[in-house]
């Protein structure tokens, strides 16, 4: 099951939206990694881990710069996700993508992003959009 982009996910903050689209592309590469070599899968998980850190950093800088009042809660959600992604990455790097990881992968790589963008990022974007 892929992570499907549609434009209802746009936040209206260009840099955030372009990073989200790139994240979707890379996450789909990972979700579609059956038959790929362990090395290739690890390249994708390494890229994603760095990209996620960088993306969260972008949003956090924009929130700080604009004095967004929900910064702490939003950063808390990012920190929690970063930890959970790291654990998933370690499992994937160790075991490869397999059926035992399906539930966790769907939850962290699909549901979390759709939910976070719709509920948390859009709320942030509404506040920061005209201040940056
Ligand atoms: Fe976010």
What does this structure look like?
This protein has 132 residues and is mainly α. It has one domain (37-131): Up-down Bundle (Four Helix Bundle (Hemerythrin (Met), subunit A)), CATH 1.20.120. 75% of the residues lie in helices and 0% in strands. It has four helices and no strands. It has helices spanning 14-31, 38-66, 71-95, 102-128. The radius of gyration is 15 Å and the shape is elongated. Bound molecules: fe (ii) ion (FE2). The site of fe (ii) ion (FE2) has 6 residues, from helix 3 and helix 4.
Task: Describe the structure concisely.
This protein is an all-alpha fold and 132 residues long.
- Small molecules held by this entry: fe (ii) ion
Strand content: under 5%
- Level of helix content? over 70%
Shape verdict: elongated
Could you spell the SSE succession in H and E letters? HHHH
Can you tell me the CATH superfamily? Hemerythrin-like
Task: Describe the largest sheet.
Answer: none
Radius of gyration: 15 Å
> Overall pLDDT, averaged?
96
Which architecture does the CATH hierarchy give at level 2?
A: Up-down Bundle
Q: Return the CATH topology.
A: Four Helix Bundle (Hemerythrin (Met), subunit A)
């Amino acid at each position: 099951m892929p992570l499907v982009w549609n434009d209802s996910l746009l936040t209206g903050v260009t840099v955030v939206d372009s990073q989200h689209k790139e994240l979707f592309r890379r996450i789909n590469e990972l979700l579609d990694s059956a038959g790929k070599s362990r090395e290739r899968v690890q390249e994708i998980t390494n890229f994603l881990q760095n990209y996620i850190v960088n993306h969260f950093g972008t949003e956090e800088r924009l929130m700080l710069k604009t004095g967004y009042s929900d910064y702490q809660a939003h950063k808390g959600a990012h920190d929690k996700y970063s930890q959970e992604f790291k654990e998933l990455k370690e499992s994937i790097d160790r075991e490869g993508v397999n059926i035992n990881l399906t539930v966790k992968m769907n939850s962290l790589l699909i549901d979390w992003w759709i939910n976070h963008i719709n509920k948390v990022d859009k709320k942030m974007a509404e506040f920061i959009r005209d201040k940056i």
